[in-house]
Write a structure and sequence with these properties.
Alpha-Beta Plaits, 4-stranded antiparallel beta sheet, about 40% strand
Length: about 90
């Protein structure tokens, strides 16, 4: 699970939770198949689809030196009906 950085909570990702879709940022070198396999093993769920897009790095400047942060990939993971990732559920107790 080293490839998955963290879960993303934006307006769109919170809306997608209602459709049983979870959003997270992952390292840019990993493929959809690897992420699908890790999620199924670690959380014990059935993944139906994995969509991804690459987000560009941001420009940084330290004095006269120009640089940038690393780019990363955002994955939208769709689970089969009846499955959920317990750490990311929005249910209130």
């Amino acid at each position: 699970m080293d490839g998955i950085k963290y879960a993303v909570f934006t307006k769109k990702s919170l809306r997608l939770l209602g459709k049983n879709q979870y959003t997270s940022n992952v390292e840019s070198g990993f493929t959809k198949t690897e992420i699908k396999h890790w999620v199924e093993l670690f959380f014990g769920v059935k993944v139906v689809a994995v969509n991804s897009h690459r987000l560009p790095g941001k420009g940084r400047r330290m004095g006269p030196i120009l640089g940038h942060t690393m780019h990363y990939r955002r994955m939208i993971i769709t689970l089969q009906l009846g499955y959920s990732i317990p750490l990311l559920d929005r249910e209130t107790n």
